[in-house]
Structures are given as C-alpha cells and as structure tokens.
What we know:
By secondary structure, the chain is mostly beta strands. 0% of the residues lie in helices and 42% in strands. The chain is built from no helices and 16 strands. It has strands at 15-21, 27-33, 48-53, 58-61, 68-73, 79-84, 92-97, 105-108, 113-119, 125-131, 138-143, 151-152, 161-165, 171-176, 183-188, 196-197. The strands form 4 sheets. It has a 4-stranded antiparallel β-sheet with strand order 1-2-3-4, with no helix packed on it. A 4-stranded antiparallel β-sheet has the order 5-6-7-8, with no helix packed on it. A hairpin with a 7-residue loop joins β7 (92-97) and β8. The radius of gyration is 17 Å and the shape is globular. The two termini are 15 Å apart.
Amino acid sequence: NREGSVNPLPLPPAVYDHPRLSADGRKIVIHRADAKAVDGAGAPASGGLWLYDITRETLSKLTYDAATDWPIWSADGTKIIYGSNRPRTLWDIRVTPIDGSAQAGDLLTLPLIQIPRAASPRGDVLIYQEQYADRESTLWRLPLRGGGESRPLFATGAGEMMPTFSPDGRWVAYVSRQSGHNEIDVRASSGDGSIWQISNGAGVEPV
C-alpha cells in the first residue's frame, strides 16, 4: 500500500510473474507456471494465465492455450489481452473475456514475436512490442476500434519496450536504449513531440 506495508497473497506455491491489477483493484491476472515443471534449460515450463479474486481469495484458470503470457486488462475490465505461443506460430496477440462468455480470439497474427504491453484508458489503442533476432525491439500502435493497420509508435529505432499509458491516456512511459542502456522516457501517446528522460542511471518496467 502507499504506506509501504507488504502482504503476501494466499496463493499455492508456483512460479508467478507478470501480475496485472484490474482498474477496480479487485482482481489480478497473472502468469503461473508449475515450479516442478521445467523446460530443457532447467527453467520453469511456460504455463497459463490465471485470475485471482482478491476479495474472495480464489484462483481460477483463464487460458488453455499451449503457452500464454504477458496479460493486460482491456480498458473496461471485461477482457484480457495476452500473448499466445501456439504450435507452429511465434507469439501472437489474443483476447478473451474474463467471464468465459466467449472463446478467445485473435487480435494480431504475424510471423514475428508480438508482446501486448498497454491498452489505452479509452480502449481504442493497443501498444505492443515487436522483437527481432537481428535488431532492437520496436513499439507498435494497433487500433482497437474502427479497423486500421498497426504502425510504429516511434521512429527512433532505440530499442523501446515495456510501455504503459498514463491514466488520462495522454502520455506513455517506456524503456528506451537511446543512451546505450535502459532508461525510462516519457512521450505523448501519439508518438509525437519531445521526449523526457525520467530515470537516472537505468530503469525498467515503468508503471
């Protein structure tokens, strides 16, 4: 909390990462992998996405794809956007309702690695991170309403990643490698205008 008190959640032992809190503060979507299941390199095997209800203290499975990760909430809190690594694909972007009222559907399927990173508070834009084998990652802007193709958010080629919207949707904080190492920058969510460096001496995972 804001006073610095830390309380563990009553969850069963496992490997948890990428938790995202719902806007109303009542639920957490999280990636969970079995601590005893490991891949060929000895790392935790990729698991699925789960929903934790803070009030009820219940944990329920959300996705049943072969491998899912990087969840984010839709603006209205009714859906989860996530990365899916299905057989014969790299990481695509899918969306599923949290109440199970419909099956998961594809948002973006391309022959590269796409990681969903931030949905705008107005629900009209998704920013995703695209990764390559031979160059730095880039951020892309995908319209969620009215159709339209995705386009690069910035044109700097500075290895931008891990973006997050401000609550009013006007700004994006993100990691940039413009200086040669990770720093936190802020820029208008349109991708235009000046860049402000917020961190001093490296930074990642802005919120």
